[in-house]
Amino acid sequence: MYLKSLVLKGFKSFADRSALTLEPGITAVVGPNGSGKSNISDAVLWVLGERNAKNLRGQAMEDVIFAGSSARKASGLAEVDLVLDNSDGTLPVDFDEVAITRRMYRNGESEYLINGTVARRMDVLDILHDSGLGTGTHSIISQGSLDSILQSKPEDRRALIEEAAGVLKHKQRKAKSERK
Ligand code: ATP
Ligand code: MG
What we know:
There is one protein chain. By secondary structure, this protein is an alpha+beta fold. The chain is 28% helix and 21% strand. It has 5 helices and 6 strands; from the N terminus they run E-E-H-E-E-E-E-H-H-H-H. The chain has helices at 37-47, 121-128, 143-150, 154-165, 168-179, and strands at residues 2-9, 18-21, 77-85, 97-105, 110-114, 117-119. The chain has a 6-stranded antiparallel β-sheet with strand order 2-1-3-4-5-6. A hairpin with a 2-residue loop joins strand 5 and strand 6. Bound molecules: adenosine-5'-triphosphate and magnesium ion. Magnesium ion is lined by residues 37-38. Adenosine-5'-triphosphate binds at residues 12-13, 31, 33-39, 63, 65-67. ATP binds at residues 32-39. This is Chromosome partition protein Smc. Required for chromosome condensation and partitioning. It is found in: Cytoplasm. Homodimer.
């Protein structure tokens, strides 16, 4: 599985439709300070279901919508489309490509689509559950969280290594079944 494309419309500094096409392997995004590099990783987090505005470096969720500039008015809608190549079947669905879309309007209304069909946030999380992607995982490490990882207690660091090794999900399942 790999990230094949990302399209941003009215998301943070990306007022116009901006499409990024990626290849398997490593992609580096370079640019001056404030040019929108971190906004791209915010877009990935957001489309995969993030609902804490602070994790997207904002105060409120509406902060993801383009706020306007001296040259153009604010957008009424933020939209991000993310396409994952699933030809190796990593994700438990019968599609070679999985397109996830999230939209949000200024009135707070929000929706998700999976391959063009309206879906719930839960459906998105379910698809990603065993993939290591998605909210709460460390597939995206922000500038700030790197410091906190380096300064974390050994127990917390252990949890991080267990997540990377794929052990954490089994531990969580075990804990859940023991509670029942
Ligand atoms: P650095 O190299 O300093 O990390 P960066 O390339 O990661 O910079 P970002 O943090 O992605 O930069 O982008 C910051 C820019 O995005 C700022 O100019 C900010 O005003 C703009 N921005 C953030 N949210 C919005 C929004 N809702 N509407 C318009 N612009 C926004
Ligand atoms: Mg940055």
